[in-house]
Request: fold
Amino acid sequence: MIRDFIFTAQPSRVVFGRGSLQRLAQEVQALGARRALVLCTPQQVEIAETASALLGEASAGVFGGAEMHVPIESARLARQYASKVGADCAIAIGGGSTVGLGKAIALESGLPIVAVPTTYAGSEMTPIYGITEDGVKKTGRDLRVLPRTVLYDPELSAHLPVPMSVVSGINAIAHAAEGLYAQDGNPVMSLMAEEGIRALARGLRGIQGAAADISSRTDCLYGAWLCGSVLGHVGMALHHKLCHTLGGSFNLPHAETHTVVLPHALAYNAPAAPNAIERIAAALGAMDAATGVFDLARELGAPTALRDIGMPRDGLGRVLELALANPYWNPRALEADALARLLDQAWSGERPEGRV
Ligand code: NAD
Reply:
């Protein structure tokens, strides 16, 4: 039976397709902007220069200072630079870190952001921002930071190394999986979540041994769009909370942490969200959601244990404490003993118990 729901769609324009980067100047113009600053990480200056060249006279240059977790210092530098060059728009070309820098600029200045994602993290579809100050990452929601236009060009992620693609794709699957049992979920987001998981599972398998296969890359990016939209529209739960805590307190790599934790969070929530769990499993083509994600990660050579991505065992107690400290909604109540077991299993990389 369909539950009652409220669905507020968020305003963003999506241009999806091979070669869509070529439309950059047109899309900037459509926003009424005349001088766009291109943002990137130091590793992606080349593609940013290409974007800048496509803009021609409408380019205000390239700012290559995007960094993981958006340190406030880099946000300040980028804001000052944008103002110095008279930018009236920012183009974020890259992964979640670069989109995050664009959001930090938009939060203060209201500049419209055009995002050109080159990973599958999904930040481009959300009004969620994060800025790190004195070692603490503060996050918030503000529609001003939602990119106004997103250009999804599968050619740009064709050279994202396969191991990074796999963890980035499973990071995206995590948004969709939690979206399926979200307290404020709705039927439209659930359809997008299922299709996103299906497309990513197919695409990630497809790039094994054929890394630049454009049809598989298109599947991955299509899945990333769907999963990112789910993240932007509905609330997340235990899995995202645990990953935020692990990443923030122990500086663990973002996408890898999501990849390791997701099967265990799903196993924990399975008794309280049977319908969502069935839909996740079906989308993965597996018998069960938790073991389905775990087996997918293992099949694709991704990490499956927190101990392998830098988590000290003696830090698990602190993670548990933090996870229990600020209550938040989750389909299953937060039970200290069961959560301690979850963290232990995730740390050692044990295959979770499925429901079948
Ligand atoms: P990232 O943006 O940190 O990128 C990792 C590295 O990969 C960078 O050096 C980048 O330059 C490089 N890279 C990106 N695309 C590439 C490509 N196609 N080829 C080669 N190298 C490439 O990683 P991410 O996983 O995309 O983003 C993680 C960050 O995004 C985290 O800080 C996370 O909190 C944030 N995030 C935010 C949201 C949100 O809604 N606010 C959603 C998801 C992720």
